[in-house]
Amino acid sequence: MSHGISGSARTRCISILVIVLLVAALSLSLTGCGTTSTTASTSQGKVNGVVTSNGVVSFKGIPYAAPPVGNLRFMPPQPPAPWSGTLQATKYGKAEPQPPDTLTGSTALQQSEDCLNLNVWTPAPDATRRPVMVWIHGGGFTNGSGTDPIYDGSNLAKRGNVTVVTINYRLGPFGFLYLAGIGGPDYAQSGNLGLLDQVAALKWVRENISAFGGDPGNVTVFGESAGSMSICTLLGMPAAKGMFARAIAESGGVNLEHSTQNAAAVTAKFMQAAGATDIAGLRALSASQLVKAETAISQQKTQYELLFGPVIDGAAIPVPPLQAIAAGSASGVDLLIGTNLNEMNLWTLAVPALGSYGLTFVVRYIPILQQAISLTALGTPDAVAASYQARRPEATAADVSLAVQTDNMFRVPAVRVAEAQSARQPRTWMYLFTWPSPTVLTLGSCHAIELPFVFGNLHTGRVSRLIGNNPPQGLSDRMQDAWTAFARTGNPNAPGLPAWQAYKAPTRATMILDTAQKQQKDPYGADLAVWNGVPFDSVKPSL
Fold first, then answer.
1. According to the model, what pLDDT value does residue 183 have?
2. How far is the C-alpha of 58 from the C-alpha of 124, rounded, in Å?
3. Percent of the chain that is helix, strand, coil (3-state, to 5)
4. Which of 27, 78, 339, 500 is deepest in the core (most CB within 10 A)?
5. pTM score, two decimals?
């Protein structure tokens, strides 16, 4: 009798073995593609995300701090509570309570004081150490959210092989109401809670991002408008030191910081509008009542003041941030900073008169602009307007006025930050975005128009209003490549771009970002020279 295996049995065994190996290989392949790797472990508990249409994995609405409600309202952020089981991170968390956006009129955001959450997009939540890019949204410190479709990070994460994070932080009176004058030392930092929220989010990233395929040792913060102002402030803020290696600041400096005197005056007006006399009274009000009071006092200000924002309080912000940067507070941080050519033109959508009046008329309603002009060698609005007009013989008086306002509010303050940082950190870079809107010709390269290009979301939501239906994909590709190259190495030079030199005086090398990119030395240098002697450090002129 034979004790061996028959031929037919041997064939069946081999067939079964082949099937088992094929199934195992298919399973490994699927796992490697990220189709099943949608769970990550954080210090609070496990989270489960979803695979997006382009194969990136997204995790939404992850709490990075405890809900700032009840006794935690008006207090610094506290650690989040752990959870059992697996958190389904498949939907955005809610945004901070806020009034309707003055430019868009949007009220579509779901809102709650329980808003301290973040979102992550990653090619895969694996052991790869990818550069991490943390987005801080704009909105004048009173509006906005990391949930805006423009900020969806899937395309940027995919193209750059980076891990993208967007965050929410407290806004308006919830994040920037200065209460030290009525609450004492316990509220010394209350005027900067929104910034402390940002720091708390960065701490969460440092502790947890490796579970999402990110490198906690290579974090870049990037943001626009109030987000850019936040980043420039973080560069001089002790609590943020060591939280990030690089920074990208789009259209915002540190020229609109509040003094404690100014912040206390805003608080007094707010308390009166809210009908409260102390902190207990403020805590007794609902979130909607606080937003109502905010809306009431916002109607008493000019269109160009920041009602709420960072406060040089001697606690969270010990000294004016620009002075701290100049002293080397961020000497280890690589910086990419820039503005758009026609920033202020965006506000003509809300205030059409801006597109009709010259500088002399406009400054009557903008005290901070009048004060800055008084510090120039030219000294008066008429003289400044004449200087700009001489270099723009075909421009209208309103166009000249908008150019002066753009430089005063955005471009020169950004240059001052670049000057201060480049003296301490040679890896400092400057850009100027000049691609104009094809749909509203009077807007030009207005404030915020670069955002869909940075995120690669050229056909998302309402962006067609500004950039049309056929925006240049190549410009978006080059910007994403530059931004992610900078996040990876601290140098924005990338294939497809001309050589980009670091920024330093007196050459002021600047990359012009348009359908054709080019580097220029000291673009609009004669305009910049008008503002010599104006520091734009929130001290002179003072708010």
1. 95
2. 9
3. 40, 15, 45
4. 339
5. 0.93
225 carries an active-site annotation: yes
Let me know how many helices (H) and strands (E) the chain has, helices first.
Answer: 19, 14
176 contact partners, CB below 8 Å, separation of at least 6? 141, 170, 191, 192, 193, 194, 263, 308, 309, 310, 311
Residue 447 annotated as catalytic: yes
Is it the case that residue 430 has pLDDT exceeding 80? Answer: yes
CA distance 74 to 308: 14
Strand partners, 163: 132
Asked if 48 contacts 89 with a C-beta cutoff of 8 angstroms, the reply is: yes
Catalytic residue among 210, 225, 228, 437: 225
Q: Do residues 109 and 97 touch, judged by C-beta distance below 8 A?
A: no
Query: How many alpha carbons fall within 13 Å on the CB side of residue 176?
Result: 32
Residue in 410, 311, 412, 409 with CA at minimum distance from that of residue 366: 409
Give the domains, in start order, of the chain with CATH numbers. 93-530 (3.40.50.1820)
Question: Could you tell me what percent of the chain has a pLDDT over 70?
Answer: 91
Considering the candidates 305, 447, 476, 538, report the single residue annotated as catalytic: 447
Q: Which of 294, 343, 419, 450 is catalytic?
A: 343
